[in-house]
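Minutes, methods subgroup
Present: GH (chair), OT, SY

1. OT presented the first of two proteins processed in the latest run. Sequence and structure tokens recorded below as shown on screen.
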Amino acid sequence: MSTQVLVTGGNGFLGSSVVRGLAEAGHRVVSGDLTEPASPVPGVEHVSLDVTDPDSVRAAFTSRGVEVVVHLAAVVTPGRQSSREREYAVDVTGTRNVLDGCLSHGVRRIVVSSSGAAYGYHPDNGAAHDGWLTEDDPVRGNEAFAYSHHKRLVEEMLAELRSSHPELEQVVLRIGTILGERVDNQITALFERPRLLKIRGSESPFVFIWDTDVVAIIQRAVTSPVTGIFNVAGDGAMTVDDIAAALGKRTLTIPEPLLRAALAVGKRLGVSPYGPEQTVFLHHRPVLDNRRLKDVFGYTPSRTSAEAFAAWRQSRRSA
């Protein structure tokens, strides 16, 4: 059955693939973003959409009979000219504007790309499940990290809406670290260094998910009868030592207080974009349990965390 779908952030890394996949599956797709797409998809309507502007959001919904919204617009990797205020405007205010649009125009379902970062970076993460976080654990995104804090605020907004407006179905995807053949970001930059940084006494495990799996899950969320919150990650996790071994590299193990002091100095001198708060990010990473994704949502990722990392490593060798 064909569905009228509005995708926010339709020109982004995930958005462009989601838009193409939905169109190829026969859905009627409206792709909203700030600029025109580099490679327009035949049959897709592209609209100028600034989620921070209520009028722009309203115009994207008007007279289009939108049934499902896939909300991907967010600031994942801030640019040099970015600011906390701008990121909040996109991530939080922008989501509020999109949700208002959904309610005003009778949208049936919204699919939201959240993040494992919404759980926050805390020493007691997953304490009830041997370090693994389930969807029943609280979201406690740290205020020190804009992305983590904003995902928490968005999820709190969505939780309130589930009570006040249950008629708007929700699929909330808490996505782990995405890898893919074209992925190149702040996380993968850590793996490109000659030696991998490790905090003494911390395994710093990562969970990975291949990008085509994320796209497939989002596309399935548009039409599946299942709603709810789902961790999106491959099976298993990889510690910093595991990653270093796979890359044939060594680790640089540093006591947390020493790294914190070094980052504080580097930030103050302008030689590092990262401040002392980054030690928490490295020390207490959220490790996502994916059983609900497989057992309730009905999707098993094509690659485990280790297999996704191996595929990313091979793509870098071939580049």
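2. SY then presented the second protein from the same run.
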Amino acid sequence: MCGPRDDGFEGEAADLEVGIWVRGADYLSGWRDAREAAAELGDALSLVGVEAAGVRLRAASGADGSGVVRLELSAAAAREVAMLARVTAARLGRAG
């Protein structure tokens, strides 16, 4: 499992072959930004009690070099995150 504090390289080799590399794009800066964002998201999910075992966060770079965070959840974690989002939306008056 690759969590928010891991180096983010598990399975990354396959991602390198997926996109087209653009000359001059700063992929490393985008990846670093995504890595920080993934750590922030992982910390926030932990704070609200989402079980870390059901969460996988991975930092990557988009085709333009921008940071991308890939989030993979177990079914149980997805239901928990959905419930937390609904509760938050209700508190903010955004429930539909």
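Chair's summary of item 2: Residues 7-14 have pLDDT under 50 and may be disordered.
Next meeting: continue with the remaining queue.
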